[in-house]
Design goal:
The chain has helices at 5-17, 20-27, 31-45, 61-88, 101-106, 108-118, 131-139, 185-188, 201-213, 226-234, 281-296, and strands at 50-52, 57-59, 93-99, 122-128, 145-148, 157-172, 182-184, 192-196, 218-223, 239-243, 255-261, 266-274. 44% of the residues lie in helices and 25% in strands. Strands 3, 4, 5, 6, 7, 8, 9, 10, 11 and 12 form a ten-stranded mixed beta sheet that branches. The chain has a two-stranded antiparallel ribbon with strand order 1-2. The protein folds into three domains: 5-88, Orthogonal Bundle (Arc Repressor Mutant, subunit A); 93-161 and 268-296, Periplasmic binding protein-like II (D-Maltodextrin-Binding Protein, domain 2, 3-Layer(aba) Sandwich), CATH 3.40.190; 166-266, D-Maltodextrin-Binding Protein, domain 2, CATH 3.40.190.290.
Length: 297
């Protein structure tokens, strides 16, 4: 087995130049060191590669046979090394992530703007999906990492808290509750509600709160997207329960973002990874910037 590419470079230099002294000078090594490298390569291959005369050297038949394959090995290896250095130096690469739609609409654009400005050669692919599907995508190794909520433990995955989001009631301004600075969860459940789907993290937190109070909620509509829930609420069709950050999507002044109390509803936003995978340098930089954005709001 050939363990050191220097041996291949030494052989190819001597084969091309036809002289040990000049080849050693080109490689910036002593002639004795070059001779040792050639002999070690010959030992690895089990054959002499040069016929050494007093005045000249020439390739043996074995040397002629291995020259082209060794040239290819050298070219391919140097290409791999070059690509790897580009990855580690963040000149090129690919980051794939699965993100909650609320984060994709609010925090992610700011993070991407900074990331692409700093690392323009790195491609980023995003899947904006609900919490359950984020966990599934990470588990199946379809993405580098997920940014969402772990609704239950998973032996294959690990998670790190990024931030905590409060849930709020988005109340139409003409609704009686719009005059209140906050509303109890129990009172909220007596009004027509607009909720996200059952596979979403917001819905899971809502359902957990309902179980504790043992009150049947009045669910008017279910939606997949926060923008739809906000639109229905603006139309006066109910009160939407969404993350506080959803207020950034509503510029109409037709809804009031009202705090929920007794209990305060909140969700954990977590970085979700496979336990048996290490993030690439580019993915680590993306995570670093996402953390900064999460802290700054």
């Amino acid at each position: 087995m050939i363990e050191n590419m220097r041996h291949i470079r030494a052989f190819l230099a001597v084969a091309r130049i036809g002289n040990f002294t000049r080849a050693a000078a080109e490689l910036h090594v002593s002639q004795s060191a070059l001779t040792v490298q050639i002999r070690q390569l010959e030992d690895s291959l089990g054959a002499a590669l040069f016929d050494r005369g007093k005045r000249h050297i020439a390739l043996t038949q074995a040397g002629k046979e291995v020259r082209a394959p060794l040239e290819k090995i050298l070219v391919d290896t140097e290409a791999v090394i070059g690509r790897t250095r580009e990855l580690t130096s963040l000149r090129r690469g690919l980051v794939t992530m699965a993100v909650l739609p609320s984060l994709a609409a609010q925090m992610l654009p700011r993070a991407l703007e900074k990331f692409t400005r700093l690392y323009p050669g790195i491609e980023v692919r995003i899947r904006d999906i609900v919490a359950e599907k984020i966990v599934e995508a990470v588990r199946k190794d379809e993405v580098d990492f997920g940014l969402g909520s772990m609704l239950r433990p998973d032996r294959e995955l690990k998670s790190r808290l990024i931030r905590v989001d409060k849930l709020c009631a988005f109340v139409p301004m003409r609704h009686p509750l719009a005059r209140q600075a906050s509303v109890s969860f129990a009172e909220l459940l007596t009004h027509s509600l607009i909720l996200t789907g059952k596979d979403s993290s917001v819905r899971a937190i809502f359902e957990d709160g309902v179980k504790r109070l043992k009150i049947a909620p009045a669910i008017a509509y279910e939606t997949n997207y926060m923008s739809t829930a906000l639109g229905l609420a603006r139309a006066g069709l109910g009160i939407a329960i969404l993350p506080e950050a959803a207020a950034e999507l509503d510029k109409s002044a037709e809804l009031r973002c009202t705090a929920i109390r007794n209990p305060v509803l909140s969700r954990r936003i977590e970085l979700i990874e496979r336990k048996d995978r290490a993030l690439s340098p580019s993915a680590l930089k993306m995570v670093e910037i996402l953390k900064q954005m999460a802290v700054s709001g």
